[in-house]
Give the backbone structure.
Amino acid sequence: MRKIISGYILQFLILSSLLLCPMYAFSQKKNDKDKEKAENVKLYQGTTIGVEVAGLGNYVLGSDILSSEVMIQANLLNRFLPIVEIGYGKVNTTSDATDIHYQTAAPFFKIGTDYNFFYNKPHLPGYLYAGLRYGFSSFMYDVDGPEMTDPNYGSLIKYPFSYHGVNTKANWLEIVGGMKVKIFKGFCMGWSVKYKKRLSYTHYENTEPWYIPGYGNNAATGFSVSYHLMYNLPF
């Protein structure tokens, strides 16, 4: 049920942003000097700050996983958008199938850049972009597994185990694509889809992390959707 609710939320956020973009585009007149402005644009075009809210919303609605981040992004030539993201991820969950308990909480960091495909159309209230991120997290986790017996014969099939304070590091790459839309004065919102590729993580003989803060489930690759509320600083 939690996954279904989370799916509805993400669909609503994406659809709302898609609807807002054409609405604002039709409400503004095109500036005939856009091309000239794009050719003579200054290097520094401003700075944007923002917070990711989809992860917070899922957690409030009962998810075992919390993952959110704040971002700061510069605008260079209205084309190149270097970005730094600092976030926090945590999970405290027990598997319904195996009764294995997993817990971790730690910050994570990302750095990268985006490219504005609509750099020569400053009259539009938003733009589409694509970019890359490098992510890193250093964290500790606890994992506990109970004794399990065969339900038919009563014989022991799995011994209990407990590993606490396992120190781990992980890094990954993200390919990002999304949209940013102005909603009121300097306030904006945007969504993005991320394809994640895990690069490395600390290996141990008897245990490995199930969840990596900032990356998600410890799979070789994965997808995620983010939704940001942002503000363009007035300088």
